[in-house]
Specification:
By secondary structure, the protein is an alpha/beta fold. The protein has two domains: 13-33 and 125-258, HAD superfamily/HAD-like (Rossmann fold); 36-121. The protein is 44% helix and 12% strand. The chain has helices spanning 36-54, 63-84, 90-101, 107-121, 131-140, 155-164, 187-197, 211-220, 252-258, and strands at 21-24, 31-32, 126-127, 144-149, 173-176, 204-208, 224-228, 244-246. Strands 5-4-1-6-7-8 form a six-stranded parallel sheet, with helices on both faces. Strand 4, helix 6 (155-164) and strand 5 (173-176) form a beta-alpha-beta unit. Helix 2 crosses helix 3 (90-101). The longest helix is centred in the first third of the chain and has 22 residues, at 63-84. The radius of gyration is 19 Å and the shape is elongated. The N and C termini lie far apart (41 Å).
Length: 262
């Protein structure tokens, strides 16, 4: 059973202060991974190719078995995120995949598998066209900018994508749940990014494409929540009411100004 946190309807606007910080989700908000579900098994297979080249030995499972087990471990991870708001590091997920295979691995073999997956997903992400211009605009206006991403990937993998698209230098704080014990919508992760930004929750605006993770999480943490639908909104429970809805990030600066921001 999923755990709920906080008030899900938007707080009265007089409970907020003028926006001083904007916190962005990553996938579906700043960047996208095209054909995620369809392409994920192929990426796992590519990681296998690197593993057996880096650590050749007898006893490795077949390529298809490896890809299937790792994909199953990945899906199981996201079930735990959804139902328990748990989080964990990349090594935890791959260790689960190897357990599913009945395969005992040494640390250097686990690292090789992780490196193989990192290589397999390199260059997969595509930035939304308005992501960089909007971040530049908000930064020029004096907003503190943060990132809060539910992910099992290592921070370095995401940071490489951000750097590729010229986004990393525009964000003041980067918070990945793979480095934390909880995931969105747990209030602790929102408190973590607000604390690092040095801005009270009431002056923070969370922008994301997932109603439960981003919008209900923001509400439970005392932040405004802006739902970015990308023109194809996800199903939204009726009891989750965002403070605003946008289709593209380019709509955000005017919205912040309407709330008393710069």
């Amino acid at each position: 059973m999923a755990v709920g946190y906080g008030t899900l309807a938007p707080m009265p606007q007089d409970r907020y202060t003028s926006p001083r910080a904007v916190i962005f989700d990553l996938g579906g908000t700043l960047v996208d991974w095209p054909d995620w579900d369809a392409d994920a098994p192929r990426r796992w297979a590519l990681s296998y190719d690197h593993l057996i080249r880096a650590v050749p030995r007898a006893g490795w499972p077949a390529r298809e078995q490896y890809a299937a087990a790792m994909r199953a471990a990945e899906l199981a991870h996201w079930v735990r995120v959804e139902t328990e708001h748990w989080s964990g590091p990349p090594s935890s997920l791959l260790s689960d995949g190897f357990r599913r295979l009945g395969c005992s691995v040494h640390e250097h073999e686990l690292i090789a598998a992780l490196d193989g997956y990192a290589r397999a997903v390199d260059g997969w992400a595509v930035a939304f066209a308005d992501a960089r211009p909007v971040l530049e605009s908000l930064r020029a206006r004096g907003y503190r900018l943060g990132l809060l991403s539910n992910t099992w990937w290592a921070a370095d993998w995401h940071n490489a994508d951000l750097a590729t698209h010229g986004l990393s230098g525009l964000l003041d704080e980067l918070v990945y749940t793979s480095d934390l014990p909880h995931s969105k919508p747990h209030p602790a992760v929102f408190a973590a990014v607000a604390g690092r930004l040095g801005v009270p929750a009431s002056a923070c605006v969370m922008v994301g494409d997932r109603p439960i993770d981003d919008i209900s999480g923001a509400a439970g943490a005392g932040m405004r929540g802006v739902w970015k639908t990308n023109g194809v909104p996800r199903p939204k429970p009726d009891h989750i009411v965002p403070d605003a809805v946008i289709t593209q990030l380019v709509e955000l600066p005017a919205l912040l100004a309407a709330w008393g921001g710069t």
